[in-house]
Amino acid sequence: MTDSGAEAGELNDVVLEDWVAETTPFERVHAVIRRTYDPQSASEIAERARVSPTTARKHLRGLVDTGAVATDETETATRYRRSETAIVTEHAEALLSEHSTDELASAIAEMKAQIRSWREEYDVESPEAFARALGVDDADTETGQVLSEWQTTRRNLSLAQAALAIDEATQRGRLSGADSDDSDADSSAVV
Predict the structure, then answer these.
(1) Which of 46, 104, 172, 184 shows the smallest number of beta carbons within 10 Å?
(2) Which residues, in sequence order, are bridge partners of residue 73?
(3) Domain spans of the chain?
(4) Where residue 178 falls among pLDDT bands split at 50, 70, 90?
(5) Distance CA 145, CA 34 (A)
């Protein structure tokens, strides 16, 4: 009888070897950082990416420059994590691939209307103000559910607006560097 734990370990080693053989050090560092939400040292990222700490630092600095990576610095160390901008951009791009801009614009209008409705009904401007008005015992009630829905709707509204802004910038060539001088167009972002 074979040891399935040993076989799984050997399979993992083969997969890692293939990954290292088929990718560049930059691709591995980028793949690791795309799954790094809690700050980690360059050495920790290097180990996961199967590169040297020096190579990891070099690629991480480049990713910081592009906005894909954020740093948390202390007196003794720099720790790296995926940036909020990269997360939002990925979600926005996913929305664009799944929905037309007309669908997104319609959804934005619906979400704005729902938020206005909550503001009027509960006489507060934000879910945070609504939460302060709620008692601790209200968290599992209908009003607690409204709070959760309001927060989710606001987050989804921001992502949909970001998706439309990315689409607009792409259409105008602002993301590719082929910026057209469209002086008649409204250059304000949808916010």
Answers:
(1) 184
(2) 78
(3) 4-82, 86-171
(4) low
(5) 31
